[in-house]
Write a structure and sequence with these properties.
single chain, about 220 residues, alpha/beta, Rossmann fold, 2 domains, 6-stranded parallel β-sheet, two-stranded antiparallel sheet, 10 helices, 10 strands, about 40% helix
């Protein structure tokens, strides 16, 4: 089994939003509201047909809509947040989803071969170790077989060849591997193209597609193995 990181184990930190948004932010934000906003942003991205910087702006528009930024303020708010989302991932992706860590432990205790494949900027392994989520081999987190960071290997989802760097460590055919991610565009489509079984991590049940499976918690993977 292979899993993504962003949106599955780590989501953007509320603290990184407050300062750049400044007076554009109405009221206060909870961590839970920001968690929801991430998945609303991903859903907006999944149903749109854009790429590049436009890709990021679609996500941020959905994110800002979720936290209540009025439509007439969103353009200015997006301009302020784009540099934050372009910055180093450890500065932004700091909120840990504890339920996902517990789910990962349950997968480990079920004797599944585990690995990570993430689009990142070269920091994903250190972030997983620092947050005691997982590491290759023994450690304070769950032991996994491999951690693949797109910036390190030079290939990023939705290019399915990124999985070629992870599959040998599992010693399994792609058809025997499940991949868990929160984006249809990047995770589900690339896993399908690689010949794996995708599971859409969709805790808010936003996705209306019926041609792939959905889970609300990482531990729900056990229903599919």
């Amino acid at each position: 089994m292979l899993l993504d990181v962003g949106g599955v184990f780590l989501v953007p930190s509320r603290d990184r939003l407050v300062e750049p948004l400044g007076e554009l932010l109405i009221g206060t934000l909870s961590d839970e509201e920001c968690d929801r906003a991430h998945y609303e942003g991903i859903h907006a991205l999944d149903v749109a047909n854009v790429s590049g910087d436009g890709d990021r702006r679609i996500y941020l528009n959905g994110y800002l809509s979720s936290i209540g930024i009025p439509k007439n303020r969103r353009g200015a708010a997006i301009d302020r947040l784009v540099p934050v989302w372009r910055g180093p991932s450890p500065d932004l992706w700091r909120r840990v989803l504890g339920g996902s860590i517990a789910g990962l432990r349950s997968l480990h205790h079920a004797d599944l071969r585990l690995g990570i494949v993430s689009n990142s900027d070269g920091h994903v392994e250190e972030e997983l170790v620092r947050n005691r989520i997982c590491q290759v081999g023994p450690g304070q987190g769950v032991p996994v077989q491999t951690i693949i960071d797109s910036d390190v290997v030079g290939v990023a989802k939705p290019d399915p060849t990124i999985f070629d760097f992870a599959l040998p460590s599992l010693d399994l055919d792609p058809s025997d591997v499940i991949y868990v991610g929160d984006s249809v565009k990047y995770d589900i489509r690339s896993a399908e193209a690689a010949g794996m079984t995708p599971l859409h991590f969709d805790p808010l049940n936003l996705c209306e597609e019926t041609n792939h499976f959905h889970i609300a918690q990482v531990g729900d993977v056990l229903h599919y193995v």
